[in-house]
Amino acid sequence: MGHDHNHSYGVTATGKHRKRLIAVLAITLAVVVIQVAGAVVSGSLALLADAGHMLSDAAGVFIALLAAWIATRPPSDQRTYGYQRAEVLAALANALILIVISVVIFIEAIRRFGETPDIHTDVMLFAAILGAVANLVSLLILRGAQKESLNVRGAYLEVLGDLLGSFAVIAAAIVIMTTGFRAADPIASILISLMILPRAWHLLRDVLDVLLEATPKGVEVQMIREHILSVEGVVAVHDIHIWTITSGVPVFSAHVVVEDRILDATGADRLLDQLGSCLGSHFDTEHCTFQLEPAGHSAHETHQHA
Predict the structure, then answer these.
(1) CATH (domain of 207)
(2) Does residue 260 lie within any of the structural domains?
(3) CA dist 122 to 27, 68, 161, 173, 184, Å?
């Protein structure tokens, strides 16, 4: 049969935006160093919390870059999809790091309510403003790529949270400077920890959807079934499976029941081209596997579904 298969491997959604991630990593690490030094000098927990959050961001970006490199390794007999799922595992690690950082910040902030130390607000304010500017630059760098990759989106959401965290630190510094209310520092720390958790949960949920092979977002099985049934010669379709290997790599398989006249070399080849074109153009799914079956074969299919 002359049907041509063209399933590409190697360049994942994260890999396409490697330069953006490297730029954000460099900016983030530079600000972490400045904020840690500023937190030590100023005595601000909120600034240290923001630095810790940014350090977790840097770790997440580094993991994403490492996973993108690993994902370029070709498939083998033991790993038929290669290492593309490594990106999803990196996003999982990123989400778990965020949750741990959030809990640690929250606990330390509660402990500090009874013993808030003196804070040098000028240093605190300067470091927080610098962090906000750096986060804004990083946000602009990642904005155009965050819809294509779980890892890039994770980095984007973390930077967004860092920006909000920097605003919280700035607000706390101004409150302490103008009113002397030192409890503003642990309050800002708690706000930062609470901002981290929802984003971490959202990323974790997306990762679990991929690992549990849920249907990709925006894809309706019934609509795909209707498109397949509209192709000439198709009688029925069953055992439909749609899942995601990694960001931007959806995979589809189905058993397609066809008229007997279709099952010659020319007819089957033409039908496979039509089905592949249908899935690729309407549902952005290039990696499709179809099992063509004559109508009489249904008696041998014992556990059909979907």
Answers:
(1) 1.20.1510.10
(2) yes
(3) 22, 41, 23, 8, 15
Instruction: Output the six-digit token pair for 7.
Output: 């399933």
More confident residue, 19 or 150: 19
Cα–Cα distance between 304 and 306 in angstroms, integer? Answer: 7
More confident residue, 288 or 129: 129
For residues 38 and 185, the answer to whether their CB atoms sit within 8 Å is no
Amino acid 66: pLDDT: 72
Residue 290 confidence (pLDDT) above 80: yes
User: Mind giving me the DSSP string for 159-221?
Assistant: HHHHHHHHHHHHHHHHHHHHH--TTHHHHHHHHHHHHHHHHHHHHHHHHHHHHTTPPPTT--H
Structure tokens at 274: 């039509």
Which residue's entry shows tokens 């503003």? Answer: 184
Task: Name the percent of the chain in helix, strand, coil, to the closest 5.
Answer: 65, 10, 25
Strand order through the sheet with 249-258: 234-246, 249-258, 287-294
Say how many domains are in the chain.
2
